[in-house]
Automatic annotation (TrEMBL):
Gene3D superfamilies: Immunoglobulins
Lineage of origin: Bacteria, Pseudomonadati, Pseudomonadota, Gammaproteobacteria, Enterobacterales
Pfam families: Phage_Tail_Tip
SUPFAM superfamilies assigned to the protein according to its UniProt record, in alphabetical order: Fibronectin type III
Name of the protein described by the UniProt record: Host specificity protein
Amino acid sequence: MVHQGIAITTLRVTWDAAESAIAYEAEWRRDNGNWIAAPRTSTQGFEVPNIYAGRYQARVRAINAAEISSLWANAPETHLKGKAGEPPAPLGFKATPIVFGIQLDWGFAPHTDDTLKTEIQYSPTSDGEGLMLLSDIPYPQKTYVMQGLAAGVAFYFRARLVDKSGNQSPWTDFLRGESSTDASWIIDAAGNQFLSAEAGKRLQSDINFTNEAILGNAALIGSVVQHQLKENGEMRAEILEVRTTQLSDKKALAEKLEKVQVEVGQNAAAVQTKATAVFDIDGNGYGIYDIGAGVKYNNQLYQAGMVIGAEVKNGKVETHFGVRANQFTVVNPSSGKLDPVFVIKNGQAFFNQVFIDKASINGADIQDASITMAKIADGIRSDNWPNGGWNLPKNGAFEMKGTAGGVRVALDHTGLAVFDGRGVLRVKVGKI
């Protein structure tokens, strides 16, 4: 058969009808390999397209109405011409860093539409030690995402194709992949994940200074309420506690709210704590405890808060600790006074002393540093390069530029070269 200008060899197996048979089960194999079952059929034959050259055997047995099978009937071994060699390896196998994961992509060579799957293995080292199966990806999918990794985790991957006849392509070379270390990506992703969780939603909620609404809802659902109130003109002080338990055929809930609040004219201040436990019959639930403090001043609400929570949703468990404030400070009392250890102010973090075992830094301005050993991924250069200074890229070449009259000195694997201000080579020591 010729398909789009390409010769395609098809294995065709046929047999005579058997008496009382309602169906047939057939198998085939190439070069004494494992038997491969053909789909059960009521006809007298089957085909396997795009076969490779080799020695082929086939066998069939009949099935009657009582589901009793006959003995196997074997066809003589036959040598067939077909595709030579083996399937081609995946094309363009690459790894892309993503937040808490690694994305793998590849392509397929022409005329590989008989591919069954792409097999991917991974190892923590480039030599394949401790090699493990990552996944079998069914054709024609050509993307796989390895998720649930910490930032900066690296593995080595290789891939091969397996066709419907069980033939395997060569493995690709090992490819290094690493989960993203881009702090901006990670912060955005982790922040969005937290804010969409129940704990994050609680931290985003504003304190309700209208206690009448809370009391009305409590009365509606049968909560137990304790309310202490004093008023004098525009001044108001109150303490409120609401306890709620609810059961339905699908969900159980227990909640306790405590709140202290004062009002003077249009201004108000409140502190609120709330503990909530919920679970439903589908296995989804959460436990959340939060503290909120706020002031309402000149018709503007200013609020700080803290929340801890544990949540399971669709079988995935997450725990959270969140803080809401424009300044977060940790102090050390060991000196007899409260010395700030670190401060987060308006989205920036300030540390007094830091010891880091391993760090990934996208950009840094360092005033003074003492480094025992550094591994540089790309290169190092002076901040005035390329107009002057020095440049040391990862390929090992070293270059310096003088500032007087544009004189330039270059030092690399070929030797030492000196250029004048017009860029003319004046001195060359080494390979000429």
